[in-house]
């Protein structure tokens, strides 16, 4: 065995409390090298009185490694443990002290989990596990109140630019709640709605004032209450990394320079605070001089922003925050932010905008979730490009799954497109059957799915600003067949708990073959999803023990023959099969 490939770390995503009674242990071994891994566990104070060998299941693999997992339920919420690895006739024992040919006497030198403290367990809101999100840019969704339109409002449906405004507002969202309910949406995430000079509102002028072009606080209260009446949660977007240059404290800095009482609210490198030849004398979001970066380690700034976070929960009963440019704000701030938010509303959902590995924000002391852009890149890279085989796709998805504890993966914010990326239909070059394949994966995968407004009726568009087009409300221009497809898949996910919280695992993913099979397995239900990511009609065959499978969408029985199941698939086709356990 290649033991140099073995990896395990205590009290991390490799060993963590899943709930008050259960510890998940994970190890990594060289791919296809180890046949069997067993967790050797016992009470550190009474090993003879309580010890147990727990078989580990190979839950994932990537190009280089296999990943194994076991769920351990210690009798006294504590235990020591080691691992027994077997390959053929070779057996090795691994503990924190090293590797051994014979079982070392426990518990000295073994790994340990000292105690399951419930207060330390990372728990995300249960409702987030059940949610189907819908992302809305208010200016682009629907114009419900013409009287709030600015003078320069453009005609609805004109090509989007970096600067144009179309008059969409909170009333427009309120008017379309029937549409969202019929679609099956149970949560909405709105991009910023606070006073701002831009169309996107990511440059805040007043954090406690709704932008007048969108509505006011009373209208937001009405919208949130109406959503709650329908079982729809509401998450707002907060921009705490930076503000607008029109933000009053920054205006004071521009006016009074070093004498300003707000000079330490920002990262001013030299005075006067100014932009010369395109370069600011202060830190900004990117290199945008109109977005000065806030000093969130400043106690006054921290107190101001935490008050904002608490205010909108108390004032209008929102259900959470999505946090813009979250990775550029200090961790001390986010820890205090979580404490403030959870104290105000314990089941509030906190989503950070982080585009890469986010484990350091997902330890239970900062965010509940992050925008899972790596997921979008992997899925669209597989389905849109057509140049990746099944094993490459599975390897990438499995690596993503192994980044985080299971309870994190259950609420990770999965998306295919957003206001910051090309739309999904554009990413597949207008090929609707490929789009459907991507949506099937989104809605049958573990995590919290989010749909970008208009994707469901066939909106297209490249990078910002093209992806931020007006919602299409002319029914003659909507793709109703696509809309019905979204409704069907959303309903399927909502109807079957296993698609929201069951185990995810690939059953078939081969090299030089873009056809895959994966499963969702949970209490009482078993799903398998068969996908043909090729342009040719294909029959996919795989061993299946049971013979009581049916199509989850049509109810048609799907038989097995001598332990094998063969499923015919159209080009870029799929089948979703289910059975009761």
Automatic annotation (TrEMBL):
InterPro entries: GH, GH13_cat_dom, Glyco_hydro_13_lg-like_dom, Glyco_hydro_b, Ig-like_fold, Malt_amylase-like_C, O16G_dom_2. It comes from the Bacteria. Residues 135-493 form the Glycosyl hydrolase family 13 catalytic domain. Keywords: Glycosidase, Hydrolase. Transmembrane segments: none annotated. Belongs to the glycosyl hydrolase 13 family. This is Alpha-glycosidase. It comes from Paenibacillus solisilvae. The lineage of its organism: Bacteria, Bacillati, Bacillota, Bacilli, Bacillales.
